[in-house]
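Table S2 (continued). Query chain:
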Amino acid sequence: MGRRERNKLEKLERITAVARELFAEKGISEVTTNEVALRAEIAAGTLFLYAKTKGELLLLAQNASYAEAHEVGMHASAKLLDPVAAILALLKPIIICNRDHVENGRTYLQEVVFGISNDGHRQEAIKLMTETERAVASIAAQRTDDRDALGDNRARAAMAILFLTLSSPLNVAKSVEDLVAELEIQLRLLFV
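Corresponding output:
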């Protein structure tokens, strides 16, 4: 990797770290792109080379958190035999990530599902969510007889339940444990 590529990667890492920090502190509605640029010690115009909107900046920041949560969940679910318990172990860190700041988590899901940008950050979010869906399907296949399209459809339904649970305005004030309990009830119905 050349010097220019290293500099670009270093800036991207710095922007991501600063955006994560500021969004966690204040929430997306209280953070400006200029504030991120200042704290990352780059020009505002440079920031727009990495994220053109505040929504894209949130995707960049949350993708990093989501990827970490996914890895934690993969390890937590690995040895559990009950498919619902294993899926919950996979999804709980993602729920925690989403609830670190509820406004950010809900906005992130809106950007992924309804965002108009097809930039790399949105595509990365979709890729991460697809990996989680595949992991759910794999858990179902290993622990049940779902080795065909039924397992894939159950995984897709489980992810839809997760996204609706996290994005619902009715659940804004619910704790992580409340959401996990609600998700467990729905997953048990799905995996009867």
